[in-house]
Every structure is written in structure tokens, then in C-alpha cells.
Amino acid sequence: MDRSATRIGIFGGTFNPVHYGHLRAAEEVREAFALEQVHLVPSARPPHKGESGLAAADHRLRMVRRAVRGNPSLVGCAYECRKPGPSYSVETLAWFARRQPGAELFFIIGWDAWCEIDSWHDCRELFSLANFIIISRAGCQPWLERTADKLFPIALKDLFCYVNRSCYRTRAGRELHFFTVSRIDVSASRLRELAAAGGSLRYLTPDSVINYINQYQLYSGRDG
Q: What domains appear along the chain, each with residue ranges and CATH number?
């Protein structure tokens, strides 16, 4: 990799809603990998998830943008929310590559997403477009429990060369890192449950996000 190039993180997800677990993970990855910015990209129509309980894409984008205010290193990206059709990561990475020519791109996903990566649209092409950072919560390093031949799906095994237990490299020079982030016991599903029950969301997500959820009655069954 060109270590002098601008280093950009791309963190996709439904963010339904965004919470402190997402934000802290983005910040820790940004710092550890010396990324100039991390773009949080809400998925409008995620192919692997149903839309039951999924707030409208514009709502989720606005919550992300409110959550990252005051931190210029984290950015809410509208690309997938604005484009028609399913949200395919390969198209998002290609868009960033066109928009940031010469930049080193780092695609950030969770361990659960990594375990189904071979079912993603055009999955091999993903690794020609960006480096990967696979995150897991502190205290859990599942990649250390697997041998190298069990770590990669059959469709991808020939792409990677061993560097160390937490890093592999493609023959084209892209890197794949496994990285632990702080364990914050919060989940989007728990926030939705609390919102539906009229419970407090304080200290689980920024106040600006809580105010937005309340304003539009998101997750209450009477979404605005």
C-alpha cells in the first residue's frame, strides 16, 4: 500500500438506529489505522436483511449525521440512501474509488458479516477495491480459533496470503485485518425495543438521536 496516500474508512450498516457502539468502533478503527475520516454509510435496502422494523433510509441517515456532529473525522454518507435499487457494497466501494482517486480505502465490517461474505454480490471484486478491517468486540477474537484454511470461504481462499494471525494480504497488495474494539453493551435491536415500550434511551445513543427518534416517533409503530 501507498502509506502516503489519504486513508479513508467506509463503515456500512443499517444503523437502525445508530448508537454508541457504532460510534466508538468507528473512532477506535480510525485511530488505530490512521484514517483521515470514517464514512458511516446507512444501507437503504440491505440485500441480506428484511425491511421489517427498518426505519426509512432518510431517517437513518439523518440520525447518523446528527450523531457525528462535532467530530469532523466521522461523516454520514448519503450514497446508498440516494441510489435506486439494492445496496451492494461493491458498488459503494467503486463509487468511493471514483470519488477519492488515489486514496487507500478501508472497508469496515463486523465478524458476523465477514462469515457470510461469500454470499455478497460480486464478493471477489470487493477485495480489488479496498482493504478490509473485520471488527469484533473486545474479549472475542474468533479468527484466532480458526486455522487459516477455515478462516476464508472457499470462493476467496486463493486471494489471500498469510502475514500474521490478525493480518492477511491479497496478491494485489490489499490488506485484510482482524481488529477488536471496545465492548459496549448496546445494540440497535435493544434501542428499538426500548423505544417501542416508551423506555429511556439515554446513555445508549447521543441525545440528538434520541430527540430525533422521539420527534418522528420512530420504532413506536407510529413512525413519521
A: 7-185 (3.40.50.620)
Q: Determine contact, residues 218/194, Cβ cutoff 8 Å.
A: no
- Give the whole-angstrom CA distance, residue 143 versus residue 179: 10
Tell me how many degrees the CA angle 189-192-197 measures, rounded to the nearest 5: 130
Consecutive H or E run containing 91: helix 89-99
71: left (phi over 0), alpha (psi -120 to 50) or beta: beta
Of 5, 3, 17, residue with least CA distance to 217: 17
* Alpha carbons 218 and 192: distance in angstroms, whole number: 8
The beta strand positions in the chain, using DSSP E, are: 7-13, 37-42, 74-76, 104-110, 131-137, 160-164, 167-170, 175-181
Q: Say what the pTM is.
A: 0.93
Rounded distance, CA 22 to CA 137, Å? Answer: 11
pLDDT digits (tens, 9 = 90+) for 6-64: 999 999 999 999 999 999 999 999 999 999 999 999 999 876 665 578 999 999 999 99
What pLDDT, in 10s, does the model give residues 105-152?
Answer: 999 999 999 999 999 999 999 999 999 999 998 778 999 888 877 899
- Burial level of 209, CB count in 10 A (0-12/13-18/19+)? buried
